[in-house]
Amino acid sequence: MSNLPTHRPDQAYCLLSALEAGFLNVPLEHIIDTAQPGERANIPSLAFLLRHSKTNDTLVFDLGVRKDWQNLLVPAYLERIKQMTFDVSVPADAADSLAHGGLTPRDIRYICLSHIHFDHIGDAAPYTNATFLLGEHARSRIEDGYPKLYRAALVPLERTRFLDPERWPALGPFPYALDFFGDGSIYIVDAGDGHCPGHLNILARTSPDGGWVYLAGDSAHDWRLITGEASIPTHEVYGCAHRDKEAAALHMRRIRELVETYPRVRVLLAHDVPWYEINKGGPGFWPGTIDSL
Question: Keyword set for this entry (predicted)?
Fold first, then answer.
């Protein structure tokens, strides 16, 4: 395992804020193998705003659920969500949450989508000045998504960068990571294709002296998968939440290694129920910031 890079004098870092971006009520049996029959979970779809300490560049990681999500999905995708008994609600989307702190979608310079499932892609249309960042292995699904998954283009291809991790160096327990700004403030981490092709995570500095956050997307849908208290199920009705169970489990073990090795790394899941229950409505949501460890 390579080490996380040490901080430099006058180290650049990021201010981190959570954004409300919808909710899913889902059968817990789809997520962990220790769930009781009929047990359900109400999980947030979180987005995150990162602001560079020196340039004030803005990057949003994931956009959550869009308000008219049904209109984006093809009938087969909608039927699958119905079959899995997902209940979707979007009291506020990512754009609404940005507005709470006086930002508009036009103020966002970069949007990194962890992957292209419907509860992460949001509505790209208002972000007219943003460059979109996606994993290279999502390209075919983006460019050829209709009529397979979506009724319309998910991102503006003329402003989209597909990131290929093949030649990225290792970082901590992860085989591939890109120093996005070249100053050690934000690393885009290849999460492998275990959950979904082109899955990306972010490791960002949250202080000039060694604090970090790891934004894990859907690397795990429940903390018990990271701690080892539960494993990934393959349900007879719901199937598996991950495209490749073994590859997904390997990436979860790498995240667990990160947590155990670096006490100043805060890991946040896209559907982080424990963190959300403690922090909802609090200062960790924009226009506030999440404290650095």
Answer: Hydrolase, Metal-binding, Zinc
Reduce the DSSP state of residue 79 to 3 states and report it.
helix
pLDDT digits (tens, 9 = 90+) for 122-153: 999 999 999 999 999 999 888 876 667 788 88
Distance between CA atoms of residues 290 and 293, nearest Å: 9
Torsion sign over Cα 151, 240, 190, 95: positive
d(Cα 293, Cα 212) in Å, to the nearest integer?
A: 7
Beta strand 186-190 pairing with 177-179: antiparallel
Identity of residue 222: D
The pLDDT, as a whole number, for residue 97 is 98
> Token digits for 194?
């275990």
SS3 43: strand
Candidate from 116-130, 144-158, 159-173, 233-247 with smallest mean pLDDT: 144-158
- Residue 42 is encoded by which pair of tokens? 């109400």
- What residue spans define the domains of the chain? 14-279
Instruction: State the Cα angle at 72 between 136 and 234, rounded to 5°.
Output: 65
Rounded Cα gap, residues 263 and 277, in angstroms: 22
Nearest Cα residue to 134 out of 106, 155, 107 = 155
- The class (CATH top level) of 14-279 is alpha beta
Q: What is the dihedral of CA 85, 91, 95, 100, to 10 degrees?
A: -150
Adjacency order of strands within the sheet including 186-190: 177-179, 186-190, 200-205, 212-215, 265-268
Q: How many CB atoms lie within 10 A of CB 280?
A: 12
Round to whole Å and give the CA distance between 213 and 195.
21
pTM of the model: 0.97
H or E, element range at 285: none
What letter would DSSP give residue 70?
Answer: H
| 186-216 confidence digits (pLDDT tens) | 999 999 999 999 999 999 999 999 999 999 9
